[in-house]
Amino acid sequence: MAALRTLQAFTVTACALLAGCGEPAEPPPVPTEVLVAPTTMTLAALGDTVRFSAQVKDQKGLPLATAVIRWSTSAADVATIDSVSGLATAVGPGSASITARAADATGTAQILVQQRLTALTKLAGDEQIKTASTQLTDSLAVKVTDPRGNGIRGVAVEWKVTAGGGAVSPASSTTDQTGRAVTRWTLGPATTAQYATATVSGLSEVKFLAIGTHPGPGLLEGSYQFTGPLPAIEPRMLTVDGQTLQDTLYAGQVLVFFDPLTAASSASSVITAAGGSVLARVPNGGYYLAGVAPRAEEAFMTSMRSKTGVRTVVPHGVGSFMGVTVLDNCAGAHGQGVSGAITEAGAKVDACKQVTTSGNRPIESLVVDEIYAAAAKGGTIMLNLSFNGGPSLIDYESQSTIEKWVSHYSWKRWMRPILETVASLPEATRRDMVLTVSAGNGNMPIKPLLDDLRTDAKLANVLKKNVLLVAATEEAYPLSNHASDDPDVAVFGLAKCPNGIVGTSCSAPLALGAIESVGAIYDLGGANALLAAKTAIATNANHVLDVKELVTKAEQLRDALKTDGAAALNVTGISIPTKGATTIAVITPAMANVTVSYTVSGTDGYFLSGTKRTDAAGRVTFAIEPGAPNVVDTISATAVLAGITARTTHKW
Asked: Cα angle vertex 434, ends 429, 439, to 5°?
């Protein structure tokens, strides 16, 4: 039995080895074909991905699910691919072949990385401040990016100056491997905001801002103006001196005056720290126009008033109801009338400076700019401002208590920036600057308001040496604002004014024309011509600027300048202790050889005018012809060079 089992085992084994026992065996499946999906793919941004898949078939065309697949790329700098998962990632522009391999079989797909232009953004160079007509310190730089923010190489960027003049170089540049393109910008001559743009076809342009500053040296060095666009005009409730009122302001703008010695960088830092930005400035004058968030004006002003070096902070107001600001002269109906008044008074109109906005509303900050611009020219400077009409044409006496308070506030809000601007000028610059300013309308007494402004010594000095406020006569314009015996306010009779302008709008330029003419005729310059005018108005109780008296005072001043010594400028007071047929005037401090002018005007028409020089006791004596009983003489005496006047009356 054992031998038989052995034979059977041998027979089975031999059959298996020879494969001759039954049908032949099938060959095992092998990978013969690889199909890749998708066959092509375009990626729009670096970092974009696509997962490829592959189907492997054997020699019979049947799917071979157990096949092991390995992935590879022909250009790893274009697209990488995970060798196991088939996840491809775009890494650079170009094309690459993606290969799937299973044993000896392969399949391919094409991948194209073509970054789509999606955004043009600023990198550097915006909001630089540099002297006009010079090249900016930093290049303008932009970046062109794809949807994932990656830079795109080889894109043409066009550069162009759109406002302010100047030039860019190059005008066209191509992005580098990071997507960055640059140019250099040389500013134009404008001392304002200037603009340039970068554009790429199919994308939104990018705008660059630069500020061109005045080259200096001098008053305007480092300055620049605000050119808009203007913010909306909106009502604001403000608290001033504990009183709440509504004012009409340019939303989000405030005027700030620093001590002129404050460095521009320091002033800008203070404004920025308080939540503002600098829209315009004259650093050497300490003037800044600040931008703040709308409805944050009062909080900003409160904060700024406590800062070291800040002199004055006021809201940027709309101004008055008049339409045009005249500085020497102006175009437009109202301005032409004012210019005509200056010419009618015998003076020459040198330039036209019209400051208006849409809606013909004057802006205080532009008036400030024009004063600085005129001052920078040097020499004798004659300016006329005829648009301070006042808050309303309602007679002051018929206004309510709060309406009167608002009238006071509005008038001072207008005057203070003007006085601060002139006060900020170097003494040598403003020595021959004369401003005639309309006293305004509404029949409001303005002497108390001027006295309040004079509590600031700098502003008092400006009022005395540089400014004459001009009112109209009661007969010609009863709504003209007035002052009781104020040394810096004159009343000027109205002649026929061009274009039908009336009131203080006409009186102020007429007065300036007279002052300018007399100053030129007697070679006095602006400061002394104004001194002659103020001496003339001090001689009469109504403070009327009589042209004949102005001529007389100009002649006396011209002669005194030739004969009096410098000590005559130091006279601090004058009095008339003795009056009548023998009248004596005495100067303080007492000194000899000081020219004193005198004027006598009687209610009977008597008139006497002349000059004498003081004796060692500082006295001059002059005789007055006695008048009839009850005749009243108005007697005035003036220390000519010092411009100090005493006035009294004598009843016969």
From this structure: 140
Tell me how many helices (H) and strands (E) the chain has: 12, 36
The answer to whether residues 222 and 213 touch, using CB atoms and an 8 Å cutoff, is: yes
Provide the 10 A C-beta neighbour count for residue 381.
Answer: 24
Distance (Å, whole) CA 651 – CA 219: 53
Rounded to the nearest angstrom, the gap between the alpha carbon of residue 130 and the centroid of all alpha carbons in its chain is 16
Distances (CA, A) of 165 to 60, 157, 211, 212: 78, 20, 12, 10
DSSP conformation letters of 553-573: HHHHHHHHHHHS-GGGGG--E
Side by side, which strands form the sheet with 40-43? 40-43, 105-113, 94-102, 70-73
Position of tokens 């001098």?
Answer: 218
pLDDT value, residue 16: 46
CA 392 to chain CA mean position, Å: 28
Radius of gyration of the chain (CA): 44
**Both tokens of residue 166?**
């100047």
Give the Cα separation of 319 and 266 in Å (integer). Answer: 30
Q: Rounded distance, CA 280 to CA 291, Å?
A: 9
pTM, rounded to two decimals = 0.71
Q: Which residues pair with 383 in a beta bridge?
A: 435
- What SS3 state is found at 436? strand
CA dihedral 165, 170, 175, 176 (to 10 degrees): -130
- Region for 171 from its dihedrals, namely left if φ exceeds 0, alpha if ψ lies in -120 to 50, beta otherwise: alpha
**Closest by Cα among 599, 503, 622, 485 to 550:** 599
In this prediction, residue 219 carries a pLDDT of 82
Structure tokens at 506: 């006409």
431: which DSSP letter? T
pLDDT tens column, 262-316: 999 999 999 999 999 999 899 988 999 999 998 899 999 999 999 999 999 988 8
Distance CA 480, CA 74 (A): 91
Q: What is the pLDDT of residues 321-372, one digit of tens each?
A: 322 234 433 455 555 555 555 555 445 454 444 444 444 344 567 778 878 8
Helix (H, G, I), strand (E, B) or coil at 596: strand
pLDDT, one tens digit per residue, over 264-278 is: 999 999 999 999 999
